[in-house]
Amino acid sequence: MHKQRSNEPFVWLLFSAGGVVAALFIPIQLFLFGVAFPLGWLNGPSYDTVRGLVHGPIGRLYLLVLCTLPLFHWAHRFRYTLYDGLQIKHLNELVNTFCYGGAIVGTAIAAYLIWQIP
To answer: Whole-prediction pTM value?
Structure first.
């Protein structure tokens, strides 16, 4: 009898990576571009500099990671919130599809929009 491998370690990996991005990188981006640069506390980069960074593959990959890994963190956290909070473990397949499917759709939309930046 062949035992099917669980995808749970991969899902936990996405959860933890998304948590790191959400806890470290998003607040830094929000502070810099939402507070420090507009208030003049720090000299902000020029439009051409930011545009140049976004056009490079590393910059686009950074934006993709910044947008997508927190989606998987949300999906995993929301899945277990529904399981433990609402006690709906009997809807396992529906909840998994909704949560992780939403994260995958969000990833696809983010990738499309990031690669469409002129």
So the answer is: 0.82
